[in-house]
Amino acid sequence: MSVLKLKQHRQLIGEELDRVVAFWLKYSHDTQYGGFFNCIGSDGKVYDELKYVWLQGRQVWMYCRLYRTLERFRKPEILEAAKAGGAFLQKFARVPSSGSPWKCAFCLTRDGKAVKIQRTIFSECFYIMAIDELSRVTEDKDMQAEAAQMMDHLIHWVRVDPSVLGRPQLPGDQPTNSMAIPMMLLCLVQQLTDGRGADVAQRYKEIGAWSVKNILQHVQRGGTAVLENVSVEGGELAGCQGRLQNPGHALEAGWFLLQYAADHGDEALRNTAISKFIELPYHCGWDKQHGGLFYFLDVDGYCPTQLEWNMKLWWPHCEALIAFLMAYSQSRSPAHLDVFSEVYDYTISHFSDAENGEWFGYLTQEGKVTLDFKGGPFKGFFHVPRCLLMCEQILEGLLQKHDS
User: Fold this and answer.
1) Is 114 inside a domain boundary?
2) Rounded to an integer, what distance in angstroms lies between the CA atom of residue 236 and that of residue 257?
3) Domain range for residue 287?
4) Quick count: other Cβ atoms within 10 Å of Cβ 356?
5) Where is average pLDDT lowest: 25-39, 164-178, 219-233, 389-403?
6) Residue 247 is part of a domain; what is its CATH number?
7) Are 132 and 189 contacting, i.e. CB atoms less than 8 angstroms apart?
8) Are 235 and 214 spatial neighbours (Cβ–Cβ below 8 Å)?
9) CB atoms within 10 A of CB 196
10) Residue 266 covered by a domain
11) What pTM was computed for the model?
12) CA distance 27 to 270
């Protein structure tokens, strides 16, 4: 790909990011009760007032990351929105559960009353990300300490006492290593340690290594497949659960591993991340007939039991864009840039809403919009702007190296 093409991609991605940010700034802020509306229609109208804690956290994190890393977003309205979102989270998100004062609700009413708690770690994960990132732009040491304290609780739940997580263990229910858990812990390690010095890095060294080890256990079938669920010993599980592939998750894990490998100078891990978690999921997950990435696949070719398995969702394509551009930045392989361009063309032409802004999230296998809302319980202000921000920054870095 020529330098001109890289510059074109950088410009178009930057413009797309501006449009996405403008959409959420205009439609998602709740100026009466604080926090953000999550359920937003294609034209920006709010269709449900429930507020999902993990999406509240993601939006705070995203505003702070934009404010902190790109000069054009260093605006008072973005910082104030992040602060208001953080205040809403700190006031309402944490609720007592099973004797733990650290559990976060999954969703809240508009005015902050807890509606539902899930026995997972994901609301807490994005609470941590939000509070830690907000502490960086506000220089609030108490927030930083709170994020670190909640991280300690997460590690304890996952590694020592999982009694507050998951369903009660029944005789026929085999314990599993789901890739989502070590992925999120690795993401949090990178969040909490970035730029914080040797002492903080040492504090999370062991959990970072544990997370990487558990992610790598998902490479199965002699290195020919990445499976979403494996046994706690790292073996393949029987049945549909064991055969499940999630290309988007594998790609996201791939660029998490690439970041970790770069931070630790681990060339072997970098090669594994590229070959097993980036190239492999793309080649098995790309729909050669209609384009786009399948949501789920069965490694043995059976029809997955997930009814939405052949839909094309926004977030796997976001992860693919980051993964292949990051892989190219480290490998300089033209093939990685070619795939990035292919995914970019499909993604922008199918997901981006040129009329109203932002992206649609859910397409049929053929690429037609099937659910036209812009925000819902699982789609918020996160995957799209994170992807666009990171791709713009990687492209800027590549162009600077070319010019130097």
Assistant:
1) no
2) 22
3) 175-372
4) 15
5) 164-178
6) 1.50.10.10
7) no
8) no
9) 16
10) yes
11) 0.97
12) 40
